[in-house]
Write a structure and sequence with these properties.
two-stranded antiparallel ribbon
Length: 172
């Protein structure tokens, strides 16, 4: 003898009638476009019972779709714009480095001359030029770091906005 469920098959005439019925109401008014389940059919949670169409819901979905497309286009434009700014600044930094190296070479050439052949004012101007170019290079590098971090922050905000609009679109 074993314990467990005992299954019986019964054959007979008649109709099987459900012991429990549940009325499912739509959350929005609309027109019935299709019915996928009929009375007495076994359904599970998540099964599609029917399809309603509503001009209000379709309009809201279309609007969300347009917002999603606009946000995506804005994100792409921001990415391209920031990349252009970054590349321009990287080119300016490379130019500044080259100019700084040239100025340092000129200063060393002035320092290597024998005493009396270089006026003190020439030497001072060459030092000031090197210092100014070094400060400019440092400022440009800081600006590049700032642009890079702000770009990442702006893109994160745009990605969050895109996800939010996408969730609205999915719910519509």
């Amino acid at each position: 003898v074993r314990r467990g469920p005992m299954v019986r098959e019964v054959h007979g005439w008649g109709a099987l009638v459900p012991d429990r019925m549940q009325l499912v109401r739509a959350t929005e008014p609309g027109i019935v476009e299709g019915v996928y389940a009929i009375e007495g059919q076994h359904v599970r949670a998540g099964d599609r019972l029917g399809e309603l169409s509503s001009s209000e819901v379709e309009l809201a979905a279309e609007k969300a779709s347009q917002q999603f497309a606009a946000a995506r286009a804005g994100m792409i434009a921001l990415s391209r714009e920031q990349a252009d700014r970054r590349l321009a600044l990287e080119a300016a930094i490379a130019d500044s480095r080259s100019t700084l190296l040239t100025a340092e070479d000129e200063l060393e050439a002035l320092r290597s001359r024998p005493p009396g052949q270089v006026r003190e004012i020439e030497l001072r101007r060459a030092r000031e030029r090197v210092d100014a170019l070094a400060r400019r290079l440092e400022a440009d590098e800081e600006r590049l770091a700032l642009i890079t971090s702000s770009t990442e922050q702006q893109m994160a905000v745009r990605r969050d906005e895109l996800r939010w609009i996408e969730s609205i679109l999915d719910s519509q």
